[in-house]
UniProtKB/TrEMBL annotation:
Record carries keyword Transmembrane helix: no
Protein name: HTH hxlR-type domain-containing protein
Pfam families: HxlR (PF01638)
Domain of life according to the entry: Bacteria
Organism: Methylobacterium cerastii
Record keyword Transcription present: yes
Length: 149
């Protein structure tokens, strides 16, 4: 994912104090967006459109890779519903459909870019922690198999 320029409005609010009261409507929206963004297909489609620009449906499927036509259809429809993707149907025979990111979709890509950078920065630490956890699990598995008198 390419590095996006930060949105000055978001950056100013992020650096400001944490609000004391949380608007329940915003909380529901945030939980909904996180659930969708956590979906790997949404992020892969977002990345493909960010890298390649406007793509036809079949090109988008190839760029994402290993996604069924049904899942691609469901995901881009949801992204279109949320205003992240613009779908353009060309009235030709045979008809074809193009997908492109909207400015809102581009801004979500910029937000995800921060997660990408975080993962890249902390990759070695995460791998060390995973190895340590696996080793501790193996040690406890071995000790559970040893009979005590």
């Amino acid at each position: 994912m390419r590095r996006a320029t930060p949105d000055p409005m978001i950056e100013a609010r992020r650096r400001g104090p944490i609000p004391k009261d949380v608007d329940p409507t915003i909380e529901v929206l945030v939980n909904d967006i996180i659930a969708k963004v956590a979906d790997k297909w949404t992020m892969l489609i977002l990345e493909a459109l960010d890298e390649h620009g406007t793509l036809r449906f079949t090109q988008l499927g190839k760029a994402v890779g290993r996604i069924s036509q049904k899942m691609l259809t469901q995901t881009v429809r949801q992204m279109e519903r949320d205003g992240l993707v613009r779908r353009t149907v060309h009235p030709v025979i045979p008809p074809h459909v193009d997908y492109t990111l909207t400015p809102l979709g581009e801004s979500l890509g910029a937000a995800f870019c921060g997660v990408w950078i975080w993962a890249e920065t902390h990759h070695a630490e995460i791998e060390r922690a995973r190895r340590a956890f696996a080793a501790a699990g193996e040690a406890s598995d071995v000790s559970a198999c040893i009979e005590t008198p």
